[in-house]
């Protein structure tokens, strides 16, 4: 496809997409490549990264796409990834990072603690985006109109979270843990904008809707797989949320709006809990503590 046929010309822009080996992340990486951006995809498995890159090049032969491998379940790996991204930016002689898409996400159906002692769903879905964003802040601040986009979910509605129990819940429920992580994504984006008002980057949370991906089949048991098989069929193609991600990343209208939460390329009201500034501050402080960052 010709760049002239694309809605956005992102030539000269550098974009990082985590979880770019499948589903929404892969489709987003493809769309960014189609628009001429230089894309750094992140995956947790070398072979899947190689395969994902080849599939993009098959559709966009001129794509500027490379992949980095990191398992975002570990803060040590997130820190190493940030250094690798900085080296990649230097190699490309890039003046900074224009877009960070925190898309990698997981659903697990049993209580698992990471090497950092954090419940795994919260570690991958919330702590990794929080930490990676902080570590890449100088590179993003160096670019005008840069944006941090974190993929949340409509499952954040009807959920509350206790910041003191962010590390691990008193009573574990897999769906609850997932909802908590997605509520934390919206709270993080809102608090980020309060702390960086009028500065670059701006933070956004994207609700992809129900999407036909394999997220519910990865490392889950028979019941979770059965439930996801039923739900998955009602999901939209991953290209639909990918176009919202592209819109939020590239369209001037996204920056003109004050909205944090976006669905189908339009602002949407997040839940009451997600709009609570005291809760957002408390979650930020606890996340910083758990990531060993200054508050
Ligand atoms: N599907 C839906 O209906 C839906 C609805 C709302 C929100 N979301 C959110 O959308 C995002 C993308 O999900 P998806 O539906 O596209 O699922 P997916 O196809 O399973 O994609 C998830 C991506 O994250 C990667 N990933 C998972 N755990 C990781 C880890 N520990 N370290 C590094 N990468 C990791 C996966 O790698 P592998 O390829 O190696 O598995 C994959 O690239 C997630 O944040 C999810 O919560 C999805």
3D architecture notes:
This protein has about 300 residues and is an alpha/beta fold. The protein has one domain: 3-Layer(aba) Sandwich (Rossmann fold). It is built from ten helices and eight strands. An eight-stranded mixed beta sheet has the order 3-2-1-4-5-6-7-8, sandwiched between helices. Strand 7 and strand 8 form a beta hairpin. The termini are far apart. Bound molecules: NADP nicotinamide-adenine-dinucleotide phosphate.
Give the CATH H-level superfamily.
NAD(P)-binding Rossmann-like Domain
Radius of gyration: 18 Å
Report low-confidence residues grouped into runs of 5 or more: none
- The SSE string, one letter per element, is EHEHEHEHHEHEHHHEEH
CATH architecture: 3-Layer(aba) Sandwich
Largest beta-sheet characterization: 8 strands, mixed
The set of bound ligands, ions and cofactors reads:
NADP nicotinamide-adenine-dinucleotide phosphate
Overall form: globular
Write down the CATH class.
Alpha Beta
The average pLDDT is 96
Estimate nothing, just give the exact number of structural domains.
1
Count of helical regions: 10
CATH topology: Rossmann fold
Helix/strand/pairing category: alpha/beta
Head-to-tail CA distance between termini? 46 Å
Strand coverage percent: 5-15%
Write down how many β-strands occur, each being a DSSP E stretch of 2 or more residues: 8
Roughly what percent helix? 40-55%
Order of strands across the main sheet: 3-2-1-4-5-6-7-8
């Amino acid at each position: 496809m010709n760049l002239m046929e694309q809605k956005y010309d992102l030539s000269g822009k550098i974009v990082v997409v985590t979880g770019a080996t499948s589903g929404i992340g892969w489709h987003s990486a493809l769309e960014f490549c189609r628009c001429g951006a230089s894309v750094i995809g992140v995956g947790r498995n070398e072979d899947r990264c190689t395969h994902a890159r080849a599939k993009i090049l098959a559709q966009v032969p001129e794509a500027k796409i490379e992949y980095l491998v990191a398992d975002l379940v570990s803060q040590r790996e997130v820190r190493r990834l940030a250094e690798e991204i900085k080296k990649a930016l230097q190699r490309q002689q890039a003046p900074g990072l224009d877009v960070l898409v925190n898309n990698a996400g997981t659903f697990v159906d049993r209580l698992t603690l990471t090497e950092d002692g954090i419940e795994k769903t919260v570690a991958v879905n919330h702590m990794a985006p929080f930490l990676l964003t902080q570590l890449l802040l100088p590179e993003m601040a160096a670019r005008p109109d840069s944006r941090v986009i974190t993929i949340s979910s409509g499952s954040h509605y009807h959920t509350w979270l206790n910041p003191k129990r962010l590390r691990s819940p008193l009573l574990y429920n897999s769906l609850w843990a997932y909802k908590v992580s997605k509520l934390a994504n919206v709270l993080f984006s809102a608090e980020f904008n309060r702390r960086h008002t009028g500065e670059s980057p701006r933070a956004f949370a994207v609700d992809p809707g129900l999407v036909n991906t394999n997220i519910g089949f990865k490392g889950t048991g028979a019941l979770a797989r059965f439930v996801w098989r039923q739900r998955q069929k009602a999901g939209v193609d991953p290209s639909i949320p990918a176009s919202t991600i592209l819109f939020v990343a590239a369209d001037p209208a996204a920056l003109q709006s004050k909205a944090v939460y976006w669905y189908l390329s339009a602002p949407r009201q997040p839940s009451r809990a997600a709009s609570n500034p005291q809760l957002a501050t408390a979650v930020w402080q606890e996340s910083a503590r758990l990531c060993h960052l200054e508050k």
